[in-house]
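Board notes, transcribed. Complex of a protein with 2-acetamido-2-deoxy-beta-D-glucopyranose.
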Amino acid sequence: MLLSQDASLIRPLNLYLMVYIILVFGTLQTLPDVSDEPCIFKITLRNFRTILSWKLKDHSIVPTHYTLQYAIMSGPEDVITVKDCTNITRSFCDLTDAWVNMSETYTLRVVGHRGNSTLVDCEGSLFPLIDMPLEPPNFEIAGFTDHINVTVEFPPVLPKIVHGEGSSFYLSLVIEEKSGNIVKKHKPKINADIAGNFIYVINELIPNTNYCISVYFEPSNLGTINRSPVKCTRLQPEQESDEDSGREARGYS
Ligand SMILES: *[C@@H]1O[C@H](CO)[C@@H](O)[C@H](O)[C@H]1NC(C)=O
Ligand SMILES: *[C@@H]1O[C@H](CO)[C@@H](O)[C@H](O)[C@H]1NC(C)=O
Ligand SMILES: *[C@@H]1O[C@H](CO)[C@@H](O)[C@H](O)[C@H]1NC(C)=O
Ligand SMILES: *[C@@H]1O[C@H](CO)[C@@H](O)[C@H](O)[C@H]1NC(C)=O
């Protein structure tokens, strides 16, 4: 969670929010005080899949099976059980097809069992727009004499959470090119109907020079940048050597 590092900050905030909720709705059933919960929930967009994972704060508790349930805060009260995440041995769940609204608050419950007994019962809530970091996409580069082709992997269909009906599409891809101390950012326009891999050509590069490329999605909010590891290539030297000296003199512009 965004503010979880600063417990002194989140507690009064939570308190005000709860008081507000009690006043308005006369109930305390939503928004558990996450700081006291035995689990830490994390959600991330990885390879365009929405992956929820959880960890127990107390490592001595080791359930063998978990069951996940969630509810949509603004929606009906119904608790939804995810079929593929019922009585599972892993501590993560793919919610790509279930969670389709980035600006919705989802409340969560994970119960951990061992044999017949319940070892742990956690609640939490997540707001993907703020809580879900976007991991960088996979990419490949191919260097030629004066250009680099960057192939960025996109799925055949974007998940609804980044392109739901009514929600604005916001994946803003940045391709960062670095040579020596010079960094250039390229921001190709990505449409919501993008299907499959995307090739971006970085032109007008200097032959026989080393370039490093990394990619990331610009966070829409206060989130931090999740930059991919760099991939580097040394461009091929020019075939004709006649113009070499001219090229050298021009250098970077
Ligand atoms: C969960 O799975 C385990 C092992 O597969 C089984 O023994 C147990 O009865 C299951 N529990 C439920 C509630 O289905
Ligand atoms: C997403 O959730 C927000 C908050 O409940 C709501 O205002 C918005 O209409 C929802 N968007 C869609 C496409 O359902
Ligand atoms: C677990 O549940 C099964 C079926 O309900 C029961 O037969 C068994 O005795 C229980 N085991 C324990 C250790 O309680
Ligand atoms: C780089 O990609 C562009 C666009 O797909 C293509 O036209 C070009 O031929 C590629 N360059 C090389 C050397 O393959």
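Residues 37-131 form a domain with the Immunoglobulin-like fold (CATH 2.60.40.10). The two ends are 44 Å apart (CA to CA).
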